[in-house]
Amino acid sequence: MAKWLDNAVFYEIYPQSFKDTNADGIGDFAGIIEKLDYIKELGCNAIWLNPCFESPFGDAGYDVSDFYKTAPRYGTNEDLKTLFEEVHQRDMHILLDLVPGHTSVEHKWFRESMKAEKNAFTDRYVWTDSIWHEPQGMGCIRGISDRDGSCAVNFFSHQPALNYGFYKPDPNQKWQQSMDDQGPKATLEAMKDVMRFWLKMGCDGFRVDMAGSLVKNDEDGKGTIRLWQNVREFLNREFPQAVMVSEWGEPDKSILGGFHMDFLLHFGPSHYNDLFRCQEPFFSSRGKGDAYEFVKKYEENYKKSQGKGLICIPSGNHDMDRLARSLHGDELKIAFAFLLSMPGAPFIYYGDEIGMRYVENLHSVEGGYGRTGSRSPMHWNSSVNDGFSTAPANMLYIKQDDRADRPTVEQQMADPKSLYHEIKRLIEIRKSHQALLSKGEITFIFAQKNEYPLAYIRRAYDEKILVVINPSGQEVSFASNIQPGENIYSTGGNIHFDNGRIIASPQTAAFMRI
Ligand code: NOJ
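That is the input. Now the predicted structure with 1-deoxynojirimycin docked in place:
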């Protein structure tokens, strides 16, 4: 595994909304370059960039129409290469977003595959053998091709599913191909070519979209795991340093497939939402939440992945509600104390470091629907459009938060008590303690059903750090024979030790070397 993952702290950039330098109302590569020092100063040393390839933008770029060309609105391939170089000059790393499961209907592969005459792309997508025959349970595109067939979709109905085969093709459905048939094999080779192209240009690896979705009728993921193992072998031969992070949400599977890291997500079995995004999140000061199920599942996955790969917990992403929609004030600081003291590389979604809010009641933009409010342009300072763009406000990609008390980077940097400074401090503390880094071990020592606090010990070599997280507005305690040690971080109040109990004051997170 690439060494730099040991102390990586990622920053996710949704390029549309980060920084616009050519006044078209949409962010661009030059804007990202302009802000690299900001990201570095926060303490993040790695970037995940959402898709930046040519696309009709029916799904914000997750509907790629040319895997080899950047979308002109962000800049040219050369500009992206410059971005890679600027990132590396700062001792940082960058992952692109690989979308291997589907393309846009406008992709030339799909246009070829829609033709009635057989050609090199006939089997590039999952097609049935008759327009009257729909692929069961997958949704499909039908009636727009000369070809007599229905094409399975992978997400929205304009995103045809690339064909990596079926784990167990149904013998009664002759159109279902096996993973070892020529078509699926060629699709995989084509995707390796795409990876080769960008890795050669200088990216450090990929966040992989819907990584678990590739092989069809593959309930336990066995075929998809095999497919990714094949990709990892290719990478080990040609780009051994390439880092792979999966959007899968099931680390027990993805890490077997050779991914270095997998995200916990707002969908899937991880109970991630219990902490941040549900009616009574654990991190709310109401203190009615529950981290128990989350911890139970986390421990299960941790055991399966320990020593082989990492589990990443993001602050949010472009698909989820902004963290600051459900948490406020000190709740956010405490949530970040947790995020930045857990194993695996943390991911901070752009703007979450200043507590950027979800913008309510927006029209959907580029297939965002309810996600649009989490994708609004960054607030840098007090200049026009909060420093995001000099375009007229009505040209901005998405309307900005215009509430008077919206946070900006400038304001948060000027206030030593801000969320920005808390996060910066937390990242510094993480990076200066081996036990808190990606691979430091974790043991939960208090995580009870419907109870607070959450407590765990991180450990690496001879360093041991106790972390106590009490988001609730009440003083809470738990029995423990741990002896007090040196305080290395606290926010809110602090913890004290009394008569075999550890007591945490209301709304407190504390780290102690023990
Ligand atoms: C997951 C991406 O994060 C999301 O934004 C996208 O819409 C779907 N995959 C489809 O690619």
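The mean pLDDT is 97.
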